[in-house]
């Protein structure tokens, strides 16, 4: 693979665009963008590639969140506490990321993903219709707890953060997939911001890549949100299940390969 960061843009810009598109629709852009960075620039410092990925991703996520907020009623009384606690949880998780190896978490995530897929498969109506029920203070507390837990997971391990957020919003608050996806972008925005609080002061970013990739991520996010809004819940459900299966397969392969 090419080693020059500027030459690498020929490969990374299309990857960032596709990652932004997929992430805006249903999450999981990191499954595309991060392996792309590591594959194309294998000699760069891994932490710098992680920081570059987070910087590019946060702009695409912010763009998607803005687009969704203009068209979908986001329950801010739940999502704002969830986002604040997700920021705190992600920051705390990042502090422990170097002391607790990822190998501890991978088997747990594999089991959780498998259970989630079986649960959704056996309930085809789940997430197809938004219940629209009144949200209570208990829901706000639950949202804050979920945000803290998912944020901690994102800070310390990370794969599938958006996938788990969408599932938990559908299951806990009876949102449809479209509304859950919109809400997940706001919370995911907070977890990405918490990571950048560490990466930027530590100068762990390749700015010559991060800025162009951020622009490509935004362009992809614009397309992704339009596709999601046009495709509706049945399309999003199928895409969600496909993404979860890909994530499960990737984690199983990593576990088996050691």
TrEMBL record:
| Primary location recorded for the protein, binned into one broad class | membrane
- From which residue to which does the signal peptide run? none
Instruction: Please give the superkingdom of this protein's source.
Output: Bacteria
Q: Which GO terms describe its cellular component?
A: plasma membrane
InterPro entries for this protein: TM_pro_TauE-like, TSUP
Residues crossing the lipid bilayer are 78-98, 104-121, 141-169, 189-215, 235-253
Q: Which UniProt keywords apply?
A: Cell membrane, Membrane, Transmembrane, Transmembrane helix, Transport
Question: Which family does this protein fall into?
Answer: Belongs to the 4-toluene sulfonate uptake permease (TSUP) (TC 2.A.102) family.
Q: Where in the cell is it found?
A: Cell membrane
Bilayer disposition of the protein: Multi-pass membrane protein
Q: What is this protein called?
A: Probable membrane transporter protein
Which portions of this protein are annotated as coiled-coil regions?
Answer: none
Q: One short Pfam family name for this protein?
A: TauE
